[in-house]
Amino acid sequence: MTSCAPNSFRLPTPQLDDPEKAGSESWTTASVYHFIHRLDRLLAEAVRRVLFHHLDQPLPPTLPGRVKTFDDFAPAPDFLDSRLDVPEAKGHSLRAFLWDKFVQPLSAQAGRIAEGGIFEKGTATSAIFFGPPGTSKTELSKKIAEFLGWPLLLVDPSLLLRKGMDGMQEEANKIFRMLEETERVVVLFDEFDELVRERGSANSEPFSRLLTTSMLPKLTSIHKRRTVVFIIATNHVGEFDLAIRRRGRFDRVVQVMPPTYEAKMAKHDWGPEKNLDLKGRLDELGVKLTDDMIRQIGELTYDESEEFVVHLSTIDNPQTAATALAAIWSQCTLQTSVSREEQNMTWADRCRAEAQLSH
């Protein structure tokens, strides 16, 4: 289906010698233009509906646009800020970076997409969110979609394999063809780690390499149209094909780490009942936080922090609290091995090595 968006469609201006005819001809031209524009908008909405229906996902309503600020971005209780090392600054706020470099420019221009326009050239419309498991990369993508007022479309490998291995290529082509024609959607490619591994590596399966080769030009095509936002969430960005990571296909590559110590201590509604206060409970117990304890709290993922806070509610002395923290930290994600093949590398090691990939 070919778009006839008003930014690319222009009717010729009539050249009339008779001024009396100019008014009626101009009115006719305007009527034709508005008809085509309205038809284009109806077709665009139809494509979105067909896409979501094909992937067996409900299409939530697109929320009306309104002016939003930094304070509106990802303010949900389950989103806590983390630190991000980028070339221009170490220890940068993840939330501030995403706002400045990704979310705010998209939000400022989202309205023009509804009118048939496109994002300005140079606006970041794609991203890879990478980092250890449990750092809410998928949840962060949902928050971005909610902020824009656009539906989130989840695409994972199971959708490509609905017709088995033999039908994978056909299904991938169909999905990407619809993605190329749609608009006003945040597309999240999740759990694609195995399908975008380095081509030619010993661990790459043939069908994974085939899909990677097929995906590359399609991602480029989607990116050039500048009418959707697409994100890949992954734990293993270092194993991605270098062509996938290239800026021409993904404008932002962002490491998502566990929430900071400061963010965890500022949260006062932990636990299943949302009534537990980490800092308050530590103060009640008289726990004197050492530098090691502060570092340990800072390295816990959201769920691991929740586990620690709930456990604190059953503890009655500072020594037991310190022991509980050490036990949870020793088994936390950052202290575990990345894989069976990499027993000597923890997630903390991997994250330090990959930090410089962010931009």
Describe this structure as you would to a colleague.
The chain has 359 residues and is of the alpha/beta class. The chain folds into two domains: 65-256, 3-Layer(aba) Sandwich (Rossmann fold); 261-335, no CATH class. It has helices at residues 19-54, 94-114, 137-148, 157-160, 168-181, 206-225, 242-245, 261-266, 278-285, 291-299, 302-312, 318-330, 347-354; strands at residues 83-86, 89-93, 126-130, 152-155, 186-190, 229-234, 252-255. It has a five-stranded parallel beta sheet. Strands 1-2 form a two-stranded antiparallel ribbon. Helix 6 links the parallel strand 5 and strand 6. The longest helix is centred in the first third of the chain and has 36 residues, at 19-54.
Largest sheet: 5 strands, parallel
What is the string of helix and strand elements?
HEEHEHEHHEHEHEHHHHHH
Using only CA atoms, what is the Rg? 25 Å
Which CATH architecture of the largest domain would you pick? 3-Layer(aba) Sandwich
Précis, in short:
This protein has helices at 19-54, 94-114, 137-148, 157-160, 168-181, 206-225, 242-245, 261-266, 278-285, 291-299, 302-312, 318-330, 347-354; strands spanning 83-86, 89-93, 126-130, 152-155, 186-190, 229-234, 252-255. By secondary structure, the protein is an alpha/beta fold.
List the helices and strands and how they pair.
Layout: H1 19-54, E1 83-86, E2 89-93, H2 94-114, E3 126-130, H3 137-148, E4 152-155, H4 157-160, H5 168-181, E5 186-190, H6 206-225, E6 229-234, H7 242-245, E7 252-255, H8 261-266, H9 278-285, H10 291-299, H11 302-312, H12 318-330, H13 347-354
Parallel strand pairs: 3-6, 3-7, 4-5, 5-6
Antiparallel strand pairs: 1-2
